[in-house]
Amino acid sequence: MKLQFMFFLGIANFLKKGSISRYLKGSIVGIGLSLIPLIVVLEVTDGMIEGITSRYLEIGTYHMEIFFNNYRNLEELETLGNRIDGIKGVKETIVEKRGTALISAHGLRTAVVLRAIPNDLYKRDQGYKKYMRIISGEFGFHNESSILVSKAIADKLKLKVGDKIPLVTVGENAFSDSYPKFGVFTVTGIFSTGYQEMDKLLVFISLKKGMKYITASGSSQIIGVKVDNPFKDLSVIANNIEKVLPKGTAIYSWYELEIGQYKSFRTTKAMLVLIMALIVIIASINISSSMIMIVIEKSREIAILKSIGAYPWMITGAFLLTGFAAGFAGTVLGLASGILISVNINEIFVYLQGFFNIISAGISYVLQPITGQGRLSGFEIFNSVYYLDRIPIRLNITELSLVSFGTILLSVLASYFPAKKAGLLKPLKLLRRY
Q: What predicted TM-score, i.e. pTM, was given to this entire model?
């Protein structure tokens, strides 16, 4: 009975004549609005980190990489790769040779990372299929002179499928003297990983051609390893792989190879979340002032209730329930709005960008006779040169649950002192006042 009384009193404080108390409306909206940027930042940064990390794991560093100090021929590398394939937890191995080169076309040139990969890699590897988007041509090697270039490089050098391009690497003679080594390749495909930072240097040739064309100087031979779960038990699998490796080899996980970038992503996310969380804390504390106003407004009712037998803890508990209800309502409002914006963030960016560009074009048209300048450059909210061309959104239920719980808890804590004060009010003193 006492708990029922406390519950109904808490609801009566929250609702007045079927509507939310005017003192709490602002606090609820404030909590909701403060949660929206926090949720959007959480989901967008998680999507960005996942999208970029996945591309490095599947295309860049693989899950693990084995490096060789001494030159190995293709047959030795493939034999060792087959042995590693039989180790528990290993999904597949990829033999690869990497070097640097200079490509030129149409009077333009650029340095590239030259990667020699197996001919059937795109067909058999799900990571390449998922993250490699074919813009033009096909991802394959018709012969040893075939080359695949990224869209970023193709745009820079004005390349198209079928173009023949000279490629220069560093050769090495029997006396270990270096010299320029020339070759002519035909563009058979243009691709994009969706991440410009990776695309801007990336070209592929066939592994057989690469073993002959990319010399030992300034190059590396690797075996890329993909496992069932790259986020779990990597050290165990690495230890098992080391048992079959010959001397003069080293194995590194993707985390070791990209630790600087990965930590940078996490640090940036932590800073953004901290700033957004401070806004939520301030909005939650605002409930305290609203609760004080409700206590003042309800002081006469509190005096009557206490005079007929209501215990202080019942009054305190009722006002804590009011704070809980306000925090819950604000959390639901902010959570729903934040999720809605997050899952549609790519489309929102497109619409906002179009809107601002229309405004920019209008301003340019009006000011052109006065300034004599041409049209302003296009406005770009989300520059794909620095980020992914599309943000993958995966709702993190754990993070959303923690944010929701934390916001409601803050609301209840902010209500504690006004609620305690309400419970300690002296009924006789209040009744004399009225």
A: 0.75
The pLDDT tens digits for 384-393 are: 555 677 778 8
Integer Cα distance of 193 and 176 in angstroms: 37
Helices (H), 298-396: 299-307, 312-343, 345-371
pLDDT computed for residue 180 by the predictor? 78
For residue 248, the model assigns a pLDDT of 81
Partnered with residue 220 across adjacent β-strands are: 98
Question: How do residues 212-264 score in pLDDT, each as one tens digit?
Answer: 888 766 688 999 999 998 888 788 999 999 999 988 889 999 988 888 878 88
Same domain, 171 and 296: no
CA-to-CA separations, 328 to 29, 245, 298, 300, 403, in angstroms, rounded: 11, 57, 22, 27, 12
Strands 249-253 and 164-172: unpaired
Quick one: pLDDT at residue 385? 52
Q: Which of 257, 273, 303 is the last residue of a domain?
A: 257
Specify burial of residue 400 (Cβ count, 10 A radius: 0-12, 13-18, 19+).
Answer: middle
Judge if 46 and 66 occupy the same domain: no
Domain co-membership, 97 together with 118: yes
Residue type, 71: Y
56 within domain boundaries: no
Q: For the chain, what is the domain count?
A: 2
**Which tokens in the block code for residue 291?**
């609760």
Whether the CB-CB separation of 41 and 276 falls below 8 Å is answered with yes
Q: What is the residue range of 88's domain? A: 62-257
